[in-house]
Amino acid sequence: MAESEINPTAAALLGLLHEGPMTGGQLMAAAERRLAPYWSMTRSQVYRELPVLAEQGYVRLGKPGPRSSQPYAITASGKRTFSRWLAEFPGRDTIRNPVALRVAFGPLHSATQLRNLYATANEYHTEALAAVREQVKNAKKEGQTFDASALEFAVAYHKAALSWLKSVPAPVAK
Q: The whole model's pTM is what?
């Protein structure tokens, strides 16, 4: 963590809070809606980061709502910190693909396991590609050009994964 002293999950929450105050559940829904095709966040990460952001003075707590839901709003300090984070070098990508990891150990699989792995991955990427293309279309329709551009990354990723799946070694019976 460089100058801003926040991690990417905290930064994503601050970025989402620029839209207005939200509870943890609302932040999770916004992250799922806007970021999920290219950036994953878990509910536990969101709820772990919010008290830290409040302690650092980057968000403030609002009045509790129904079922003790706690809205958070970004502070001026949080906006400055988010701006510093935006200006920092983003670091290197970390690639962690569970299918590629399993393919690396292909000879240890049965032919059936590999066929199932490939079929499941192909189905997932085909469905995800269709879904994210729809998101891109909607973002463009709503004039959200930056959201659409970020979502295009997910389109390219799923296309690349489908292309790669066509080239994986065929299962060999043991």
A: 0.83
